[in-house]
UniProtKB/TrEMBL annotation:
Intracellular or extracellular location(s): Secreted, Cell wall
InterPro entries membership: BBE (IPR012951), FAD-bd_PCMH (IPR016166), FAD-bd_PCMH-like_sf (IPR036318), FAD-bd_PCMH_sub1 (IPR016167), FAD-bd_PCMH_sub2 (IPR016169), Oxid_FAD_bind_N (IPR006094)
Coiled coil residues, start to end: none
Pfam families: BBE (PF08031), FAD_binding_4 (PF01565)
Signal peptide interval: 1-21
Domain FAD-binding PCMH-type: 70-247
Name of this chain's protein: FAD-binding PCMH-type domain-containing protein
SUPFAM superfamilies assigned to the protein according to its UniProt record, in alphabetical order: FAD-binding/transporter-associated domain-like
Cofactor field: FAD
Family membership: Belongs to the oxygen-dependent FAD-linked oxidoreductase family.
Keyword annotations of the record: Cell wall, Disulfide bond, FAD, Flavoprotein, Glycoprotein, Nucleotide-binding, Oxidoreductase, Secreted, Signal
Organism in which the protein naturally occurs: Gossypium tomentosum
Taxonomy of the source species: Eukaryota, Viridiplantae, Streptophyta, Embryophyta, Tracheophyta
GO molecular function: FAD binding; oxidoreductase activity
Length: 535
């Protein structure tokens, strides 16, 4: 019955009720009828009664807040091997009134790729783990990558073919490409080449009607929306065609640590005014946390780790830093030269290229219980503002907390904020991500940590973007708002609150696209773009 009759059947409203008594029974029966090979269901579909259900569900869950016994779990996990399996899952979910969550790498900060914030919503998870091929064309400097692949698998595929081709995606290699590209995707090369989504030149997507569309057949509006408009609203992207970028055979990296006693506050303050003005080839970021002043001393201090990747040699970087940031005091011994992919590995303690293929290895991305929030900064924070922030990191709740500052500017200043849905371009000097982690034994008192990060976020209000206070859709934060999951009515007004923060004025165009491609609002996680019918 694929594909013509299949598409006709998908035109039936998702509100249609099952003819069987229970949605779970009806859903499985439906899949058995519509899977291209019904005998594969037992190997690709996990029910809650399956002994492997829990391990599969938790296999790529990065935030343990959403793996506790009280976390809502899906009725089924589908691990498709081919597009027709996804088409069947969409069709059967529609006619049985089930919500769909799509998982690529499992790094959604609010767990929305594998759970829901509401306990009574029946849903299924479509886990793309089996759809992760990477095909690199060195001659054309392009690559096709399936959405279930990780950033590491993409980088590995490129590095196997060329030392001087790269892609401007993220630093943390266990992140799934499907989620990252959908929201924008920044990394060590973005000041030179823009976001990952800026370098997507084609895609294959399954929409709410089960149609497989490419760039030409989906049209300009939908192709625009899926590159930075966030995952989960417009369909399921099967694969992305990427424009690869040129890098030198060797890049230069350094990490230099400075404590308050070593003038960290003044260096961070100065960095704010110059890092976004550096040449595009240089990205300099800062990781800030509390540490002991010394092994023998229980006194705490603040440590700022200044890290950099430069698309050039040590001989070029040292004089550049002497000219632009002399007070930092960079010397040759601080620097190392290596390939760009070795630099990615080095930043996370990896050595062997094959490490990039480890999908579930703990990297710089938190793999504990954690909460994160995000800000964009338009003007340097005064020294007194930084000095007022530091004591919060000496509190008991902050022993595993940190903030990460990433310089913008360069190519990001040149791309119009309407080019794709991601709008945070010219005028942004850097971004801040705040993260607080805690252990399992402390999770029963998780409100302490949630309150701590909210207080930090409140403290930063005078120093960051406003009207709206901007945020990044790939770092989802349900504290800034969510949709009504039980009624379409009024969802537009609710979504506008968080939507303006993520997308600024691009939110209205995203609503227009959603209305065209999914007017019945089938794809609707907690922070999905609503159609105009939900006004």
């Amino acid at each position: 019955m694929f594909p013509s009759l299949f598409v006709i059947l998908l035109s039936v409203s998702w509100k249609s009720s099952s003819t069987l008594a229970y949605p779970s029974e009806g859903f499985l029966h439906c899949l058995s009828l519509h899977f291209a090979n019904s005998t594969s269901i037992s190997k690709l579909v996990y029910t809650q009664r399956n002994s492997s259900f829990s391990s599969v569900l938790k296999s790529s869950a990065q935030n343990f807040r959403f793996t506790t016994p009280s976390t809502p779990t899906p009725l089924f996990i589908i691990t498709p091997l081919q597009p027709s399996h996804i088409q069947a899952a969409i069709y059967c979910s529609r006619i049985h009134g089930l919500h769909v969550r799509t998982r690529s790498g499992g790094h959604d900060f609010e767990g929305l790729s594998y759970t829901t914030a509401n306990y009574i919503i029946p849903f299924v998870v479509i886990d793309l783990v089996n759809l992760r091929s990477v095909q690199v064309d060195v001659e054309k400097a392009t690559a096709w990558v399936e959405s279930g692949a990780t950033i590491g698998e993409l980088y590995y595929g490129i590095a196997q073919k060329s030392r001087t081709l790269a892609f401007p995606a993220g630093l943390f290699y266990t992140v799934g490409v499907g989620g990252q590209f959908s929201g924008g995707g920044y990394g060590p090369l973005f000041r030179k080449y823009g976001l990952a989504a800026d370098n997507v030149i084609d895609a294959r997507l399954i929409d709410a009607k089960g149609r497989i569309l490419d760039r030409k057949s989906m049209g300009d509006d939908l192709f625009w929306a899926i590159r930075g408009g966030g995952g989960g609203s417009f369909g399921i992207v099967l694969a992305w065609k990427l424009k690869l970028v040129a890098v030198p055979a060797n890049v230069t990296v350094f990490t230099v640590r400075k404590t308050l006693e070593q003038n960290a506050t003044k260096l961070v303050h100065r960095w704010q005014s110059i890092a976004h003005k550096f040449p595009k080839e240089l990205l300099m970021s800062i990781f800030i946390s509390s540490v002991k002043s010394s092994e023998a001393d229980k006194k705490m201090t603040i440590q700022a780790n200044f890290s950099s990747m430069f698309l050039g040699s040590i001989d070029e970087l040292v004089p550049l830093m002497e000219e632009r940031f002399p007070e930092f005091g960079l010397v040759r011994d601080d620097c190392l030269e290596m390939s760009w992919v070795e630099a990615i590995l080095s930043a996370q303690g990896g050595v062997q290229l094959e490490t990039l293929l480890e999908r579930h290895k703990k990297t710089g991305v938190s793999q504990t219980f954690f909460k994160a929030k995000f800000d964009y900064v338009k003007q340097p924070i005064p020294e007194m503002g930084l000095e007022g922030l530091w004591p919060m990191f000496y509190e008991e709740e902050a022993k595993m907390a940190n903030i990460f500052l990433v310089a913008y500017g360069g190519k990001m200043d040149e791309i119009p904020e309407t080019e794709i849905p991601f709008p945070h371009r010219a005028g942004t000097i850097y971004s801040i991500i705040y993260v607080v982690d805690w252990d399992e034994k402390d999770n029963r008192n998780s409100k302490r940590f949630l309150n701590w990060i909210r207080r930090v976020y409140d403290y930063m209000t005078p120093y960051v973007s406003n009207s709206p206070r901007e945020a990044y859709v790939n770092y989802k934060d349900l504290q800034i708002g969510s949709n009504n999951m039980f009624s379409c009515k009024g969802s537009y007004a609710q979504a506008k609150i968080w939507g303006r923060k993520y997308f600024k004025n691009n939110f209205d165009r995203l609503v227009y696209v959603k209305t065209k491609v999914d007017p019945e609002n089938f794809f609707r996680p907690e922070q999905s773009i609503p159609p105009l019918s939900c006004f």
